[in-house]
């Protein structure tokens, strides 16, 4: 048994980010053609494009603002024009970055940025790409959430609010499009080791790791593995799920 995405096309937003770049390489290794979305890092996007093309997969890059419906619809048109069809798999990975502080000190614009990049990105991607999935009777709609949605720690309010709002959209959407053969799921990483940590030598944090049942931080590859699983037919009967990939640091209860 293996993950086989041959013949499928995947769009990853925020593809040049620390997690997105590993999702892209993993999905390509599984056989998927790839659409790499970026907002500002054109150099990294082009590097990823060449890496994917070297695997023999079809690929393209699209630049866009995922908080703008007009921009997302332009991305859709570019993909259709360049590759002749639209993605079978979308991964909403992009998110706005901001400085975390307390509710009383957080700039109200930060709450808006998180709502736009978590909730509205997902809505715009659904409007752009789910209709074609429905026509094919097949689709995988995947969002990257966070363990913070369950932790509610100090200084996380804007991020947590955006991701909890995103969670509501995904749960409702799963019920709306399930009969059309489309699954809708969320991956919720913990504090994940990425290339930035490897470059800076910051892979370990004792105070965080001692709280995690597996006593370590997860890796970008482990997040990408879950994304690939949910994108595949191995997860054909999984929908509406919020799946923490955080070593047990948070555990959804029933």
UniProtKB/TrEMBL annotation:
Q: Which Pfam families match?
A: adh_short_C2
Q: What highest taxon heads this organism's lineage?
A: Bacteria
**Chain coiled-coil ranges:** none
Any one GO molecular function term: oxidoreductase activity
Keyword Nucleotide-binding in the entry? The reply is no
This protein's UniProt keywords: Oxidoreductase
Q: Which family does it belong to?
A: Belongs to the short-chain dehydrogenases/reductases (SDR) family.
Q: What is this protein called?
A: Oxidoreductase, short chain dehydrogenase/reductase family protein
């Amino acid at each position: 048994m293996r993950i086989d995405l041959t013949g499928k096309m995947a769009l990853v937003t925020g593809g040049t980010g620390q997690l997105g770049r590993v999702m892209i390489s993993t999905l390509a290794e599984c056989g998927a053609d790839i659409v790499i979305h970026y907002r500002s890092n054109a150099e990294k996007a082009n590097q990823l494009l060449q890496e994917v093309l070297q695997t023999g997969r079809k690929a393209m890059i699209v630049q866009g603002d995922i908080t703008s419906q007009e921009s997302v619809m332009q991305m859709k048109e570019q993909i259709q024009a360049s590759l002749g069809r639209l993605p079978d798999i979308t991964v909403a990975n992009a998110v706005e970055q901001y400085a975390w502080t307390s509710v009383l000190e957080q700039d109200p614009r930060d709450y808006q940025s998180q709502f736009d990049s978590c909730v509205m990105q997902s809505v715009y991607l659904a409007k752009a790409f789910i209709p074609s999935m429905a026509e094919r009777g097949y689709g995988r709609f995947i969002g990257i959430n966070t363990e913070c949605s369950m932790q509610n720690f100090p200084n996380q309010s804007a991020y947590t609010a955006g991701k909890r709002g995103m969670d509501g959209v995904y749960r409702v959407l799963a019920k709306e499009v399930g009969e059309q053969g489309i699954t809708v799921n969320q991956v919720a990483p913990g504090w994940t080791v990425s290339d930035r940590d490897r470059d800076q030598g910051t892979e370990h944090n004792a105070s965080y790791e001692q709280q995690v049942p597996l006593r370590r931080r997860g890796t970008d590859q482990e997040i990408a593995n879950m994304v690939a699983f949910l994108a595949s037919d191995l997860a054909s009967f999984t929908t509406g799920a919020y799946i923490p990939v955080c070593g047990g640091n948070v555990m959804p209860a029933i």
